[in-house]
Amino acid sequence: MNEALIIQNGLVIDPEALTIIEKDIGILNGRFAPVEEVLKQDRNEIQYINASGYYVSPGFIDLHAHIFKDYTELGIDADKVGVEQGVTTIVDAGSSGYENYNLFKEEIINTSKTEILAFLNISRKGLCHGLSELANLEDLMTLEEAREIFEKEKSIVGLKARMSGSVVKDSGIQPLKHARNIADHLHKPIMVHIGNPPPNLQEIFPLLNKGDIVTHAFHGKKHGVLNETGEMIPEALSAIGRGVRFDIGHGTSSFSYRTMRRFKEKYDIAFTISTDIYKKNYSHPVGSLMVTMSKLLALGYSLTEVVAAVTKWAADTIHLTEQGTLSYGARADVTIFGLEEGNSLLADSEGDELTCHQILTPYMTLRTGKVAYKKEDGIKNIRAL
Ligand SMILES: [Zn+2]
Description:
single chain, alpha/beta, TIM Barrel, eight-stranded parallel β-sheet, globular, binds zinc ion
């Protein structure tokens, strides 16, 4: 028997065409299919979801979160910030390393409804033994170890190097040079976290190549990607020219409205929106991926732009072909959400507040064509017509 589902009357956001059109979406055996194909199935077997008044999008992808619960001090429950918040794919950004990836896989990847991928920390220890994981160069994963684990574990999509003073201590730029070497051999992207120097961006950016990702790109600390007059520093500009990508990575101290506004004023460059969500910033200031997206809406980005940033552009960044799209045949991960009107005062990581008139609110989340989460209140339940 085929599993047939039609999501009816939703405002469908296509992040590839950047359009919002009211229409139906067909799903057959967990994959997107033309509605006509679905209607050819046994009428009594077809399920319907009424999405009238709601937006329907490919499932949201959060490129930077920390979900190694119980084994790292940051770790938060994956589904709580995943499918329950409309996020169908979470990429854990460096919580695990070579030494404890297996544990991460058993305890988190294999037990979550949310799809879990990972940037593997270049420190073997990941974040399981505190937050200065690159202070000791002897902890760096070797090229041989990296080759072995990347070959075996397909959920690992790249490397994570947290390049700020408190993480690297006396190691300076060395850990990133090491990551560069591994990335060049294995052809995998590096997600680099930037923060308080050392090392400074003049050392970091020249080591990044096409496809690498700079997270916390819009922090409000000194020595960021923009200079005092709001221009990108030359090293950042040339990195962007080479195909390096920017990511938000909101976090406790890494997203500034001021920086974002100044960037928006001068640059029309696509970036991904991610949360860097973990236990201590979940209630404030991050909230969720949808809350973070709502902040970008309030800063003047359009709904299609913010949705594209967590679907098409996020999938493209880590080379996913099944996610971030509504193409026929692709895996049917779907986020259905509402836009709540109001006046919410939301803070960035600097304590600046912004009035947000529209807040994205999760309504229903589908993974491979099955309902993984639905909001209990105000839900128009799945009904058979
Ligand atoms: Zn992080």
